Amino acid sequence: MGKRITIDPITRIEGHLRIEVEVEGGKVVNAWSSGTLFRGIEVILQGRDPRDAHHFVQRSCGVCTYVHALASVRAVDDAVGIKMPVNARLIRNLLHGAQYQHDHIVHFYHLHALDWVDIVSALKADPAKTAALADNTSNAPWGGRQYFKNVQVRLQTFVDSGQLGPFANAYWGHSAYKLPPEANLMAAAHYIEALRIQAKAARLHAIFGGKNPHPQSLVVGGVTSVADLVPDRIAEFLYITKETHDFVKNVYIPDLLAVASFYKEWGGIGGCTNFLTYGDFPASEQEPESFYMPRGVIRKRDLANIEMADQQKVTEDVTRAWYLKSAPKHPFEGETRPIPENPKFSPEKGKYSWAKAPRYDGLPCEVGPLARVLVAYGKGHADIKPLVDGALKQLDIPASALFSTLGRTAARGLETVAIGEVMQGWVTELVENLKSGDTKTYQPYEMPQTAQGVGLNDVPRGALGHWIRIENGKIGNYQYVVPSTWNLGPRDGGGNLSPVEEALIGTPVADPQKPLEVLRTVHSFDPCLACAIHVIDPHSNEVYKIRVV
Amino acid sequence: MGNPLVTILGVGNFLFADEGFGIRVIEKLQADYRFPEEVLVVDGGVLGINLLGVVSQPDHLIVVDALRNRGNAGDLYRLAGDDIPRRVLAKNSLHQVDLLEALTLCQALDKVPETVILGVEPEDIETLKLEMTPVVQRQVAPMAARVLKELDRLGVPYSRRSCT
Asked: What are the pLDDT digits (tens) for B18-66?
């Protein structure tokens, strides 16, 4: 029996996640992923007008407001049978693309980089040498000895103040950190620059989104942003998206490759077997054929035989989750019936998570950037394939190294380049279409009494599906299956491990007291268990008494 | 130099009863009052560190939130200055930690807004329902008035929308 390590909660993620691993001989031999969450959005939605669903579902996640709203209106669009106007398709794509630009930058720099970059070591760096390194590796617009010196002073202030904030809870000085001090300082500086660009990119949603930060412009049948389709607004959107894209090309990707070059062994750690992507970004009414990021399923890492994905093969298994026993169910039949007794964490044979276990044709599938990029790569995608080949060549690693933690983190950056590029074309297309006299953004429809619809998105974190049943013109049932349950759910009735559980096995752990290596793989999935979650124990460990005014 | 920028930020999740308090106060302020251009009234939901763009811009930040503090449901709190960073340690709601992390991150940028957090002691933040409990619901109007008092303190003008 190996040594058990429990990490609870995993920090630098958006929700609550507990990971338990068993370590033997310096390696993970078994792993369990438990989302301390509870779902049941249908409780709120049943009996409501289907047109209003997106206002509620976008609140079920702290981060992914737009993507839930989009999946929801797509589900109702599908139920109603909407022929999407060109302008609406383009604006939806642009807002969705903006979400990718924003989220992937935040993930790399603010949620994941500190697993690879040692902030404390950055304090020891020589600013002049850092400036030279930065000149060689990136095309960042900032640099020079004085710039890096200033960053160092700022970091020192953080450390001295004792209020590490985002830099707390890390394993500074851990032997698994491999970057020299100068590379650490460069990355730390870009961490701060990424905060600035993130704050800007978040504004993109306000331009066509109406209300920031909860976009209100999506409606069943299209978008409401007619008034926003003026040259000023479009120019503003283009300007910010381009500035963000420049950051991705000139800073994010060079940083990613520079960091990866010190961690090539992670091209052999943290991989999964099966992959699923619904695909996204329609270029016409032909769905999924016209998707910029194609739909597909990869079984057993076989990139030569990528199948088309069929949402009817999606089921959720609750054998190991804290719900009443039932056979795996398709989301249209989905239900949320928690066990009546207090949940007991029983990883060996029993139930151990609030997350259900989504399966495709019975298989656990990794979803997210790596799934999307592998499907596109396997299909010889005109933009993705050269990007991936270029990165592999620069790092001097084989394509098989993509099935890994390094591959997952690299795929996220590479797809941000491709999507940022194609977004600029969509802006041009939108302008041309408006010029041609087509100002339609909305397709009128009649709400059927009885219908069902599916809204499939591939969102920054992965495959997101919403399923709606309309009865008597109202919502009869509503279920969604979110990316983080695909990636971070529990085992299923057949004993199959979830993607993160599979990925963790074999991970080296130098110091069981400081399982930094485990966090690297967990964070590489960009866990977001905030979707439909609810904190079970609201009592804080520490309570400060505040004066009642 | 123009007038100071002020952001009034409601946070919380209206899917969970009293968790929606901050959002409801924002909605009331937006419905009943007009604010000058330099005042932003924002429904922040539970966006956490993604609110950095919102919290890093203003000179003054007024946050409205449900604050679990083991008082009586409906108690109103005001946190300012040194009280705030200590709250980071006392984790009592999912979104708060991220919001305060966003505030801490402002230190890495150029500007940390002078921040006041106005909170209400919730009764129920667990039940999945849109309605707040009566005792907390009753505090929406008094809390909106407190927000306006903060604006008075800052010397920022506002006006009541005429009744229609």
From this structure: 989 999 999 999 999 999 999 999 988 877 667 777 888 899 999 998 8
What pTM does this model have? Answer: 0.91
First to last CA, chain B: 37
Dihedral pair phi/psi, residue A39, rounded to 5°? -120, 170
Q: How far is A541 from chain B (nearest CA, A)?
A: 7
Q: How many CA atoms lie less than 13 Å away from B100 in the CB half-sphere? A: 26
Q: Which residues contact A111 (CB under 8 A, 6 or more apart)?
A: A12, A13, A523, A526
Please name the residues in contact with A361: beta carbons below 8 A apart, sequence gap of 6 or more. Answer: A297, A313
Q: Are strands A27-35 and A357-360 parallel, antiparallel or unpaired?
A: unpaired
Chain B interface test: which of A38, A157, A546 (most B C-beta within 10 Å): A546
Instruction: Give the pLDDT band of residue B95 (cuts 50, 70, 90).
Output: very low
Percentage of residues in chain A having pLDDT higher than 90: 70
| Helix (H) / strand (E) containing B34 | strand B33-34
Chain B residues with beta carbon closer than 8 angstroms to that of A166? 101, 104-105
The residue count for chain B: 164
User: Nearest CA to A521 among A191, A39, A102, A27?
Assistant: A27
Task: Give the number of other Cβ atoms within 10 Å of residue A2's Cβ.
Answer: 16
Tokens matching residue A408: 């997952």
Of A154, A198, A212, the CB nearest to B52: A198
State whether the Cα torsion A488-A489-A491-A496 is positive or negative.
negative
CA distance A499 to A309: 18
- CA dihedral (B70, A63, B5, B21) in degrees, to 10, reads -40
Partner-chain residue, chosen from B57, B86, B125, that has the shortest CB–CB distance to A544: B86
For range A306-330, the mean pLDDT: 96
What residue type is A386 in one-letter code?
A: P
- Is the pLDDT at A145 greater than 70? The verdict is yes
Task: Please give the Cα distance from A265 to A267 (Å, whole number).
Answer: 5
Are B64 and B30 within 8 A, CB to CB? no
Q: Do B104 and A163 touch (CB under 8 A)?
A: yes
> One-letter amino acid identity for A328?
P
- To the nearest 10 degrees (0 to 180), the angle between helices A86-106 and A405-435 is 150
Question: Is residue A29 a contact partner of residue A47, using CB atoms and an 8 Å limit?
Answer: no
Encoded amino acid at A210, one letter: G
List of residues 6+ apart from A462 with CB closer than 8 A: A277, A366, A367, A368, A369, A371, A372, A483, A484, A486, A487
Cβ contacts of B54 on chain A, cutoff 8 Å:
202, 213
Query: Following DSSP, what letter does each residue of B49-103 receive, concatenated?
Result: GGGHHHHTS-SEEEEEEE---SS-TT-EEEEETTHHHHHTTS--SHHHHHHHHHH
